[in-house]
Design a protein that fits this description.
Length: about 350
């Protein structure tokens, strides 16, 4: 009769062991789930890449420190549910920040391209996949620019401008945009299309106008000569003094802005000075301007259409013209409006003359 207690004790030990094993499995499962909840925010940021805060050495938006340690690793244990939820919210905000979740807005990319068939192959191939629309303005191109664009991107919208010049090309492209955000991109391969999410991220973070710059940390250029660099620096300093701005790079054409800002920008010039006009009018209109570091690559094929001295003088003229108060400007009235005004004045005079009296 004594074996029964032994069997009972063994059965009780096995029961305790099973309960301990189950408890250990549940604990490990909870820890694994807690550890896995930190990853979605990082995955939304693209291939596990850290947000801008981590790239700059500061605390990242996923609850990570400058060494790339997540919240869980830094605490040495699974984060509490509240901490995990807070970390995930920060991660979501980070994904909409510097890198830019361009799937949340419709992005229109406007590309003025004058005889850029060879370079356009590289530009279109590097565009983000989730761009809403691409608007190409080929101008008076005599090569296969339009054919190449339609071959590589069948959904491209080709817009023909009514005058000549980069400024007019952009104005015609802007008028055709249907997206929430408009990005200006050069077709010579100097502007990297892969930087578009950074510009969109600046807008999603609260800016109205995201201005590319080659003169801050993270930016640079392989395409600027010493003469152009000195000229750009001098013109930028002059614009900052006259207009009270704090720009670091005035003459760079890589910009992005909300579609609703078009009336404030009001592009009404035709030449390369359009980039300066956009920057100055964004500041004058009270738009929130954010500078985004951008690296200008060297032109891939062909020669630039930019004329250093001629276009430099046009930029200087734009700076001064936008600085002069409107009530001091010399009014410019097109001849057609002058003729219409004379006709209206003649009709009023005829209507006010009594019948039977002739006008001397």
């Amino acid at each position: 009769m004594k074996p029964l207690p032994t069997q009972t004790a063994s059965s009780g030990a096995n029961t305790d062991l099973d309960e301990a094993v189950q408890e250990a499995i549940l604990t490990a499962t909870r820890h694994a789930v807690a550890g896995g909840e930190a990853s979605p925010a990082a995955e939304r940021n693209g291939s596990g890449s850290p947000p801008s805060g981590q790239r700059n050495g500061s605390n990242g938006s996923h609850g990570s420190n400058g060494n790339g340690l997540s919240v869980i690793e830094r605490n040495g244990r699974g984060a509490a549910p509240a901490a995990e939820e807070h970390s995930e919210r920060r991660g979501a905000r980070g994904a909409r920040g510097r890198r830019g979740d361009i799937t949340s807005v419709r992005v229109s990319v406007v590309i003025p391209a004058l005889n850029e068939a060879l370079n356009l192959r590289h530009v279109l191939a590097n565009l983000p996949d989730n761009v809403f629309e691409v608007i190409l303005v080929p101008g008076t191109s005599t090569d296969d620019t339009e054919i190449v664009a339609r071959t590589l991107r069948p959904d491209v919208r080709v817009i023909h401008q009514d005058r000549t010049g980069k400024g007019n090309a952009l104005a015609c492209g802007f008028a055709a945009c249907r997206g929430d955000v408009i990005v200006t991109l050069d077709a010579d391969g100097s502007a990297d299309p892969k930087e578009i999410p950074a510009f969109v991220g600046a807008l999603l973070a609260g800016a109205d106008f995201a201005k590319g710059t080659r003169a801050i940390q993270g930016g640079g250029s392989h395409d600027m000569t010493l003469l152009r660099k000195l000229g750009n620096r001098g013109l930028t300093h002059l614009a900052n003094v006259l207009h009270g701005t704090h720009y670091s790079d005035l003459c760079y054409g890589y910009n992005a802005f909300w579609h609703a800002c078009l009336p404030a920008l009001n592009v009404d010039i035709d030449g390369f000075e359009v980039e300066t006009l956009l920057n100055l009018r964004a500041a004058k209109s009270g738009l929130r301007v954010a500078e985004v570091a951008s690296f200008e690559l060297a032109r891939i094929h062909g020669r630039s259409n930019l004329r250093t001295f001629n276009d430099g003088w046009r930029v200087l003229g734009t700076i001064l013209r936008e600085w002069v108060p409107k009530h001091h400007r010399i009014a410019h009235t097109p001849p057609s409006r002058l003729q219409a005004g004379r006709r209206r004045a003649a009709r009023r005079a005829d209507a006010s003359t009594p019948a039977g009296l002739s006008r001397d």
